[in-house]
Amino acid sequence: MARIFLEIVTPDRVVVSEEVDIVTAPGVAGEFGVMAGHAPMLAGIKIGPLHYRVGDREEWVALSGGFCEVTGKKVTFLIEAAERAYEIDVERALRAKERAERRLQEAQAKGDRVAEARARAALQRALTRIALAERAKAGHPR
Amino acid sequence: MPNLRDIRRKIEAVKKIGQITRAMNMVAAAKLRGAQARLEKFRPYGEKYREVIRELMSSGTVQASQFPLMEVREVRNVGLILVTADRGLCGAFNANLIKEAEKFVEERSREGQQVKFICVGRKGAQYFQKRAEVLEAYTDVMGRVLMQDARTIARRAMRAFLDGEIDEVYLIYGYFVNVVRQIPKREKLLPLSMEEGGAEEKPFEGAPIYEPSPEELLDQILPMYVNTRVFAAMLETAVSEQAARMTAMDNATRACGDMVRDLTLLFNKTRQASITKELMDIVGGAEALKKA
Fold first, then answer.
1. Which residue from A5, A102, B289, B292 has the highest number of Cβ atoms inside 10 Å of its Cβ?
2. What ipTM does the predicted assembly reach?
3. What CA–CA distance (Å, rounded) separates B245 from B176?
4. Is the separation of the CB atoms in A25 and A32 below 8 Å?
5. Among residues B166, B185, B167, B165, which one has the least CA distance to residue B175?
6. From B217, which residue of chain A is nearest by alpha-carbon distance?
7. What Rg do the C-alpha atoms of chain B give, in angstroms?
8. Could you tell me which chain B residue has the CA closest to the CA of A78?
9. What is the pTM of this model?
10. Domain spanning A89-139 has what CATH number?
11. Which of B38, B155, B209 to mutate to test the interface with A (most CBs of A within 10 A)?
């Protein structure tokens, strides 16, 4: 089957760069999948897990916000921060989760909408990381 | 006639300073390589943002005026994000950036506008904290430039802009031309305008799918674009800082070598002079004895 070239880029590095069979990503307008031959597209990406498959190999990547561009043979994700599942520091993610929960409560108590939104985003990032790290531990040792 | 021991002590001191500056030169060279590699890696990321935003803006239905970050207002207060190094000992690097910022303030005040600072890097913060209005100062962020920090800084600037505290935002940072040349660069950050940068490139053939709509996409992407601009300025400054330090320390090491040479010459001259003097004393003494 024809493959599509997947690239996930953050300001610091190229996280993923390889030919894949299918990518599933958390779009702002809902989750979507991309395979070879997809129509050109520009999509907003929200915090969540990205999944892709190459043959039998399955990979998961934790994404924070960004956008995705599909052109002919290539799909590029420009993301502010992304890690592969096996790179995730669970301890740190757990700490981040606790911190975010605390901040969220504080913000709600004070009625600070900006802080609340920020805490919510941080919590979402932490939860995504934790979920992916667990999945990596369970079924994907790589 | 200078004292022989003093000269010898001075030579030792200068030699030791030379060792330190040589070490600093090598450290700066190593850091420069690392920072430069990061800058290279980042460039395509920043480019892509610009390209995609231009694409979205030209998609027809979108108008700049509908985005708060692109709103052009009458300018009364100007925000200036001044990016300098945290540390000194890098020649005139920080001084040049500060000078550029002062020039900016002067130009603006001539037009009756007030400049408010957001200082990134300790050197700029130290200088302007007492002399100008500083909205916020971020120090100790230039050692290892992080996207996280850039985001915090960009957010602060955007908030001030959206709240109407400032009506424009400029960036001044150390632009890296090459290893021996770094110049202060001034760029307009807010309100965002996409006219700059000529080459009209079309990443797509035909009309692509937008998900969600171009307006919503821009709403999401524009703030992130501001983040990348701040991040780029910080990276660029960090690279320039190391390059400037490398050159400055190289010059210092060379100056130390020159000084050691001059001092050694002086030392030898002094030594000879003192030997001659002693000899004359002895001869004089012997002469006097003979007469007696």
1. A5
2. 0.80
3. 13
4. yes
5. B185
6. A44
7. 29
8. B45
9. 0.85
10. 1.20.5
11. B209
Give all domains of chain B, ordered by start, each with its CATH number: 4-24+248-291 (1.10.287.80), 27-246 (3.40.1380.10)
| CA separation for the pair B292, B288 (Å, rounded) | 6
The pLDDT of residue B199 is 45
- CATH 2.60.15.10 fits domain A4-85: yes
What are B22-45's pLDDT values in tens digits? 999 999 999 999 999 999 889 888
φ/ψ (deg, to 5) at B65: -65, -15
Q: What are the residue ranges spanned by the domains of chain A?
A: 4-85, 89-139
Write the single-letter amino acid at B124.
G
Catalytic residue among B32, B39, B90, B239: B90
- Put simply, the answer to whether A9 touches B212 (Cβ < 8 Å) is no
Element containing residue B173 per DSSP (H, E)? strand B168-178
CB atoms within 10 A of CB B230: 28
Contact by Cβ (8 Å): B135, B79 = yes
Identify the pLDDT of residue B205. 56
A112 at the B interface (CB within 8 A)? Answer: no
